[in-house]
Write a structure and sequence with these properties.
Family (chain B): Belongs to the binding-protein-dependent transport system permease family.
CATH topology of the largest domain in chain A: D-Maltodextrin-Binding Protein, domain 2
Order of helices and strands of chain A: HEHEHEHHHEEHHHEHEHEHHEEH
Number of helices of chain B: 17
CATH architecture of the largest domain in chain A: 3-Layer(aba) Sandwich
CATH architecture of the largest domain in chain B: Orthogonal Bundle
Largest interface: A-B, 32 and 27 residues
Subcellular location (chain B): Cell inner membrane; Cell membrane
CATH superfamily of the largest domain in chain A: Periplasmic binding protein-like II
Distance between the termini of chain B: 21 Å
Main location (chain B): membrane
Oligomer: heterodimer
Distance between the termini of chain A: 76 Å
Number of domains of chain B: 2
Structural class of chain A: alpha/beta
Strand content of chain B: under 5%
Protein name (chain B): Putative spermidine/putrescine transport system permease protein
Number of helices of chain A: 14
Keywords (chain B): Cell inner membrane, Cell membrane, Membrane, Transmembrane, Transmembrane helix, Transport
Largest sheet of chain B: none
CATH topology of the largest domain in chain B: MetI-like fold
Chain lengths: 371, 404
């Protein structure tokens, strides 16, 4: 008697599990990982809100863990317990995850939507499709914002990257990111190295010393930041005169919060941000993740995101669809880092160089910081 | 109360005026600092303090009139120098300074010390009170800007000029709206309120049982067992968290695969168990401490009268050690409610707790919504503690332990 009860209970369990699986082949819970803040809000408005409206019963949980995505995915993989479905990472992290086999390889033409005019996804994303696992979403830039009311009298507002290193004309504190990437490139640019030679110089021991020596000239006037929100806060407080951060954060501080901050686009460094899908998801969750990514990276969705934040869509076909800000009603095109007016002098971040030299230069930079 | 002799008014020129000048110089330094010239501030402050004491003493200005006049004068000065905020700061300084003058001048500063105290002993008595006040000030003061800033109308941790001049446009409740009106904060709050009480219940039950067992003298190797049980408190949290992550992950997978439990439920189980482990040492320590004073002949007496061990525990032992159990439980609750490291490792996004949300919010956004959350939590804790204290007094009164 007792045995039959157990047997039937087990079979009922098995049956419901089987039914749940047969029902659409897709899991209904999805955990997305992103960066929090205004950026995540733009993803909610442009991607997940319409997606859940179209797919009844799908619930989305957000985890603001993109900053430590690589470490956490490694741990999850080791423990055999992957709780994330789609993860938003910068391109460099996507490359690392892909190399370590922690992210799934994506066939752009198969698994991503073609452009409305029929151009294949591969051509539509073009060069931005770096690595085999990375699904590009936005182009952002790391650039400078300065307090307009702290510009010394009789001096024009900073408009050259080397103004950051010019303590005489522009006294005051600076905010720079607490890592070598971008900072050492800017330092070399302002120490007489030509733009096309920066990475060749940086590959040498002397070049690295040269960059740190240039940074040393302003070291006492630098506050080092580690989260994108730090610089806007420091600028709003008037604690720094000029600081680097992501252009979308500065846009929010200037246009949405009305802070007296100006943009300095010179030598802005472009970078990419996008999705990866962790390797080893169960079938039903993988199906849901792929379905979501197909939807969220189509031409219209990428263009929609630009209504909420000033990052450029990664697809060529999305650019003409970029319109006005959803609540402020201002034209977004001119606030994009890719706008010709802003992109007069840009610096292209070299993924391969940093993949090879990052650990080495990181160690030197941290040692220099601690001196 | 010690005998208090006739109050003697101290000498103006050698005592009251220089002392007031000293205090006013300190205020002068602070104000001067705000205007970039601290030393000018010190001098102006000292001169003003001296003059104030002289005028109030020489012309025997009545206390009420003298105090209001000083407050009004400094408020106007503050208003002229800056804005409404300056006026309030001026009024506060005026209130303290004028109180100080009368406190010295009328001899009130000796009111609570015996007549035979020397000047040095009196000084020490008042310094002691002053240090006590400072301790309270440094405990409470950091909370006040947090509360004030939580009403900021901007999305930054910045005292705007509007806020400092008490312009209503500088204030808003929008961060409270953010906290109370969005899932971003309400879901973590709900999670914390699910996880903390259940974890507390588990750690209190297990911890109390363990403490009772470990306080029996016949348990072999109880020092060692005790050391192991308390280790979560000693081992750095990040180490425990990493260990727990690798321990609970396969456990969770097994529960999901073999018992067919759903992922989110298993996630809660993992976090609750992990937090219960962290809470157990607190319960063991407090309960063991109360058990030291427990008279074991009571349990033998209960057994003698025919009560079985379970009845003895609930009817005799439990009521006597209850204070220890409750304070241990409070510690366990706070540990779980405040915990951010372990939950970051063990939990998944569905179990996001309030400290986790505060941590990410602070790191990624620096939005004053955190300040609103903190203010609400502080208010709730104050209300809770006040209620508990009032109830305790009431029950003491009912039991006739205190005259009320």
């Amino acid at each position: 008697m007792k045995k039959t009860k157990i047997v039937s209970a087990v079979s009922v369990l098995g049956l419901t599990a089987g039914l749940a699986h047969a029902d659409g082949h897709m899991a209904n819970d999805m955990t997305l990982v992103s960066w929090g803040g205004a950026y995540q809000q733009s993803q909610i408005s442009a991607y997940t809100d319409p997606y859940t409206a179209m797919n009844d019963g799908v619930t989305v949980t957000w985890d603001e863990s993109s900053a430590e995505a690589v470490a956490k995915l490694r741990a999850m993989n080791e423990a055999g317990n992957i709780t994330w479905d789609v993860v938003d990472v910068v391109a460099a992290d996507a490359l690392r995850l892909c190399d370590e086999g922690l992210a799934m390889e994506i066939d752009a033409d198969e698994q991503l939507a073609p452009a409305p005019d029929g151009t294949s996804a591969e051509d539509d994303f073009g060069d931005l499709l770096v690595g085999d696992c990375f699904i590009p979403q936005i182009v952002y830039s790391t650039t400078f914002g300065y307090r307009t009311d702290m510009v010394p009298e009789g001096v024009e507002a900073p408009n050259d990257i080397c103004d950051v290193f010019d303590l005489e004309t522009y006294p005051g504190m600076r905010a720079l990111e607490k890592r070598p990437i971008n900072n050492v490139e800017w330092a070399l640019l302002c120490d007489g190295v030509a733009k096309e030679d920066v990475y060749d110089v940086l590959a040498t021991e002397e070049g690295q010393e040269q960059a740190l020596a240039k940074l040393d000239t302003i070291k006492d006037s630098v506050i080092w930041w580690s989260a994108g929100a730090d610089t806007p806060q420091l600028l709003a407080d008037g604690e720094v005169f000029i600081g680097s951060t992501y252009n979308g954060r500065l846009f929010a501080a200037i246009e949405e919060q009305g802070q007296p901050i100006g943009m300095m686009w010179d030598a802005q460094v472009f970078d990419l941000d996008g999705w990866i899908i962790p390797e080893g998801l169960p079938e039903d969750r993988l199906a849901r993740a792929l379905d979501f990514v197909y939807f969220a990276t189509d031409t219209q969705r990428l263009a929609d995101q630009a209504k909420y934040i000033s990052y450029g869509p990664a697809r060529l076909s999305s650019a003409p669809l970029v319109g006005q800000h959803a609540t402020l009603g201002i034209d977004m095109a001119q606030h994009m880092p890719t706008d010709p007016e802003n992109a007069k002098n840009t610096f292209l971040y070299n993924y391969e160089f940093w993949a090879d030299y990052r650990d080495d230069i990181d160690a030197k930079f941290q040692a220099w910081l601690a001196q | 109360m010690a005998y208090v002799g006739p109050i003697v008014r101290p000498n103006l020129m050698s005592f009251t005026a220089p002392c007031t000048a000293g205090l006013a110089a300190v205020f002068g330094f602070v104000v001067g600092n705000a205007f970039g010239s601290p030393f000018v501030g010190v001098i102006i402050g000292a001169v003003f303090g001296f003059a104030l004491a002289y005028v109030l003493h020489q012309f025997s200005v009545p206390r009420t009139a003298g105090r209001w006049a000083t407050i009004g004068l400094l408020a106007v000065v503050g208003l002229l120098l800056t804005n409404l905020g300056g006026a309030i700061a001026g009024a506060l300084i005026g209130a303290v300074l004028s109180w100080f003058v009368y406190w010295l001048d009328t001899g009130d500063y000796r009111k609570n010390v015996p007549i035979y105290y020397t000047a040095r002993e009196t000084l020490w008595y008042n310094t002691f009170l002053f240090i006590c006040g400072l301790v309270f000030f440094f405990l409470i003061a950091p909370l006040l800007p947090v509360m004030w800033l939580s009403f900021n109308a901007e999305d930054f941790f910045t005292f705007t000029p509007e806020m400092l001049s008490f312009d209503p446009a500088g204030y808003s409740l929008k961060h409270y709206e953010d906290f109370l009106g969005t899932d971003e904060w309400m879901v973590p709050l709900k999670n914390s309120l699910i996880i903390a009480p259940i974890a507390t219940l588990i750690s209190v039950s297990l911890g109390t049982l363990a403490a009772i067992g470990l306080s029996q003298s016949h348990v072999p190797g109880r020092q060692w067992i005790m050391a192991i049980m308390i280790s979560p408190m000693i081992v750095p949290l990040i180490i425990s968290a990493t260990g727990m992550f690798f321990f609970y992950a396969p456990l969770g997978n097994w529960l999901e695969a073999n018992l067919g439990l759903n992922q989110s439920f298993v996630g809660y189980v993992k976090v609750i168990l992990a937090h219960a482990v962290l809470g157990v040492p607190f319960v063991i320590i407090t309960v063991t401490a109360t058990l030291v004073g427990f008279d074991n002949s009571l349990t033998r007496a209960a057994a003698n009268m025919g009560a079985n061990p379970v009845t003895t525990f609930f009817r005799v032992q439990m009521p006597l050690i209850l204070p220890g159990v409750i304070s241990g439980g409070l510690f366990a609750f706070i540990t779980s409610f405040d915990e951010v490291v372990v939950v970051l490792f063990v939990g998944s996004a569905q179990q996001q707790t309030l400290p986790w949300q505060m941590f990410t919010g602070l790191r990624e956004q620096i939005s004053p919504t955190i300040l609103a959350a903190a203010t609400i939590l502080v208010t709730i804790s104050i209300l809770l503690l006040t209620t508990v204290e009032l109830l305790r007094r009431r029950s003491e009164r009912l039991r006739g332990l205190s005259p009320g």
